[in-house]
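User: Predict the structure for this protein chain, please.
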Amino acid sequence: MTATAPDPESPGQPPTNDTGPQELEPNQLPHTPRRPIWLCGTCATEWPCLTVRTLLPLDYYDSPTALHVYLATLLQEAVEDLTRLNPDPGPDPQRMHARFLGWVKPWLDITRRRAGGPD
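Assistant: Here is the predicted structure, written as C-alpha cells:
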C-alpha cells in the first residue's frame, strides 16, 4: 500500500493508507506465509502473525498435538528457507522456536478458559 497525499481541506492531518482491501493473489489464503521470507501475506508481519495466533488455537481446539506438529513442520521449513536466504549467521534457533511454538500452549490455555473448557 502506498500513502496518499494529505487532504488539502484537512491541513495537519497525516496521509492515510486507505487503499481498500488488499488484493489476494489467486489461490492465496489470507494470513498465509509468503515464502521464502516467512512474512504474513496479508499484514506483512512475521508469520505466524497475531491473526494466525488467534485463529489456529480455535481451529485446533480439540487437537493441540496436531497444532504442535503442524507448526513444528512449518518451523523446520522456515529455518530451511531462511537459512538459504541468509546462511551466515542464519536464523536464531531460540527466536524461531519462540516464534513458531513458544506461544502455542499459553494461547491454547487462554482459548480454553474463554470457552469454559478444561485447561
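The mean pLDDT is 82.
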